[in-house]
Amino acid sequence: MAPASEGHPQQAPGTPSTPRPGAGRYGEALFRPEQPGEGDRIDHAALVYDPFTRQRLRSLGVGPGWRCLEAGAGTGTIARWLAEEAGADEVVALDRDTSRLEPLAGPRLRVHTADLTRIADEPDLGTFDLVHARFVLMHLPERRALVSRLAERLNPGGFLVLSDAVDVPDPADPHSAYRQTLNAMWRTLAQTIGTDIAAVRAHPHALRAAGLSGVAAELVCPPLTPGTSLTAFWSETWRRMRPDLLIAGGLEPAALDEALAYLDSAGLAELGPGMLTAWGHRPGRSARRGA
Predict the structure, then answer these.
(1) What is the dihedral of CA 32, 36, 38, 39, to 10 degrees?
(2) Rounded to whole angstroms, how far apart are CA atoms 290 and 123?
(3) Is the pLDDT of residue 51 over 90?
(4) Which is nearest to 44 in space by CA: 227, 241, 253, 216?
(5) ∠ Cα 288 69 129 (to 5°)
(6) Contact (Cβ atoms closer than 8 angstroms) between residue 194 and residue 29
(7) Pairing relation of β-strands 67-71 and 128-134?
(8) Which residue has the higher pLDDT, 3 or 173?
(9) In 10 A of CB 256, how many CB atoms?
């Protein structure tokens, strides 16, 4: 999954990425934020996954009195919800590319342009009652170290919540065009920007290693059915990735065309990649809620 945006060097439209394995970055080798329609692509995924994220954050008690960091804020749907509906006192929306976040800035929502991998170099950010990152860490290097650095930004009692994609294999039809394309996408993301979905299942272990308590995790897997936002997200994602899927992913053009046609068909019925969410809190007494 690749909804969050980070970075935007220029590259000729349609030019396949050819860096050494994992050398590129999200928003550079793939999914440049200035590309027309990229915000809409991200928002298609947000429409599907935001309800699950909001439910989890509500269950942790987010609301008035909280100071929140939305790391890799993308188009800002969760940052805006935290500020406007959850009623957090302050929300910091952090991303390398903040062009889609600036219009959302307001009394409770502050936009901060920074590289999440260098958060240790941002002392003015302060500490938070909630640090949330969705579909971000899976694309970044040195994930364990980054989890520890994010945990260091928590107030006592504060929560770190991480969500990333996990694959759901299809043993019944492992060689379908849909499955071939999905597998090629993961290979391409690993090859070009270093995405590692295999590491996502270890998020709970990383939270415990960072010294957090009350660690838990859950998996949601929305259905992939005709005419939905999730279907639109994957269709647009694969169309944008076409040159890379064929070269870095080793996918045959006919398989990609068949998979795209399947996404547009009335017979579509799949489990798309799931979203694993893991969370834990920093030990200590929370001043905001006296717990």
Answers:
(1) 120
(2) 26
(3) yes
(4) 227
(5) 20
(6) no
(7) parallel
(8) 173
(9) 22
Question: Where residue 77 sits, what CATH number does that domain have?
Answer: 3.40.50.150
Mean of pLDDT values over 215-236: 96
Whether 43 is in a domain gets the answer yes
Among 192, 185, 73, CA closest to 134: 73
Length of the chain: 291
Query: Read out DSSP for 12-65?
Result: -TTPPP-PSTT-S-BTTTB--TTSTTHHHHHHHHHHHHHHHHHHHHHHTT--TT
The whole-angstrom separation of Cα 241 and Cα 112 is: 29
What digits encode the pLDDT tens for the residues 91-139?
A: 999 999 999 999 999 999 999 999 999 998 988 899 999 999 999 999 9
In a domain, 111, yes or no: yes
pLDDT of residue 171: 74
Residue carrying the six token digits 């492992």:
174
- What lies within 8 Å, CB to CB, of 103 at 6+ separation is none
Residue (of 233, 115, 129) closest to 182 by Cα position: 233
More confident call, 235 vs 2: 235
What is the spatial distance between Cα 47 and Cα 50, in angstroms, rounded to a whole number?
Answer: 6
Total domains, the chain: 1
DSSP labels, 97-121: --TTTGGG--SSEEEEE--GGGGGG
Amino acid letter for position 158: G
270-288 core/surface letters (b: 16 or more CB in 10 A; e: else): bebbbbbbbbbbbeeebeb
Main-chain phi, psi angles of 34, to 5 degrees: -80, -5
Q: Is the pLDDT of residue 9 over 60?
A: no
Give the chain's mean pLDDT: 89
Instruction: State pTM to two decimals.
Output: 0.88
DSSP state letter for 221: -
Domain range for 111: 38-169+194-221+273-281
Q: How many helices (H) and strands (E) in the chain?
A: 8, 9
